[in-house]
Amino acid sequence: MNILYLHSAEAAKDLLVKRGAVYSDRPPLVMTTEVCGYEPSPLISYGDKFRRQRSLMEQALGTSVIPTYYPLLEIGTCGLLHRLVTSPEEYDRHILRYAGALSLLVIYGHRVASNDDEMLNLADRTIDLLANDIVSAPPKGIWAVDVFPSLKHIPEWFPFASFKRKAAVWRTQLSDFYTLPFLEVKQKTADGTAVSSFCSMLLEEEKHLTAEKEYDIKWAANSIFTGSIDTTSSVIHHLLLFMILHPEKFAKAKEELDIVAKDRLPTFADRPLLPYVECILSEIFRLSCPLPLGLPHRLRKNDEYKGYIISEGSAVVANIMAMVRDETLFPDPEAFIPERYDPTVDEATRKARDPRQWIFGFGRRRCPGMHLAESSTWLAVVCILATLNVTKAIDSNGDAIEPEVKYENMVFRLPNKFTCKIQPRSEQHATLITGSVLE
């Protein structure tokens, strides 16, 4: 299989967006979809099944629908703030719980009551399995059966069939991951006890649920769930890291917040009044780059671009990390400079720099849950900035501890846990956090 890497935003737009009919397929991930039985819409071929599931996601997650989820997002964010000040040393677990619990609540109506929630931990284990073992970055994530699909027919006892033996174990965990939360919401919807959610809204619309429609709802739900957890988690982890490394930038954001929402938590109604916070979020999106290489596209037929012939079946990988660090668009690209998006910058430049056009994918494969992910991330960022200080931890000698930043996740760009100090900005802010949880 030929592999083409796109390092520029121009090439990605020309091919993946403008020629979406040709570039919207996926390479056959036989190990994942057939041998392990895991086939969410982001991994399957572009066809009727993909379009049906995509339509369901756009129906329930369009821009006009997102405000209906605001109350759920606010509940989840208040819980995150409370846990961060109660046990700040476990911030990584709290962020995972926020991202996972929020997704479980919005998509399935499942309420997470503790960090030990069965559904939450199942999601954590399974997404880690997918990212670091099954569909991890090359070369680890390239299986012989993906290159030679006929190998899927060999028996498990065959000498070179270790992939079949692994898949037999993984298949059960993956099945639980996409089946159990759906069965829970399906039962509660039938009983009339379901919390309003992505699944319950779609299930309630169907008076006679066909096997095909149930299949599509189940996989559409899991597709959104899988894509939202690590994206949200990556951005919030990077927020804490940047608050430590660039306190002067965040001091300006807090001044803006103190003017708009001094004695309360910020809400979505405040968003138009917080332009510098918007700049902060855009720069965090850019530098965090949750999915650096996206997911590969595949050509449905031969194509020509700038004198080069690209053959049918070639895999096309968008190097999103290179795009968000393009020096022509972002001078000093590794620096944290929210002012890149300041309203005083000309509109054409600001539009060209917006990282949202890349980090959520391209063309017909663009993430349909991006509006929900963007909204939940904005609320978490703005509430953390409004109420918390995140600084360097101090050792026993009174010296500041520099955060050690490492990345080990092979697919999602999530920093390993680093040492930091998290506390309310003041007693007033501590009271505000406690009161928001009790309401």
UniProtKB/TrEMBL annotation:
InterPro entries: Cyt_P450 (IPR001128), Cyt_P450_CS (IPR017972), Cyt_P450_E_grp-I (IPR002401), Cyt_P450_sf (IPR036396), Cytochrome_P450_fung (IPR050364). Pfam families: p450. Its cofactor is heme. Heme binds at C367. One of its GO terms (cellular component) is membrane. It is a single-pass membrane protein. Its main location: membrane. The keyword Transmembrane helix applies. It is found in: Membrane. One of its GO terms (molecular function) is heme binding. Keywords: Heme, Iron, Membrane, Metal-binding, Monooxygenase, Oxidoreductase, Transmembrane, Transmembrane helix. Pathway: Secondary metabolite biosynthesis. It comes from the Eukaryota. Belongs to the cytochrome P450 family. This is Cytochrome P450.
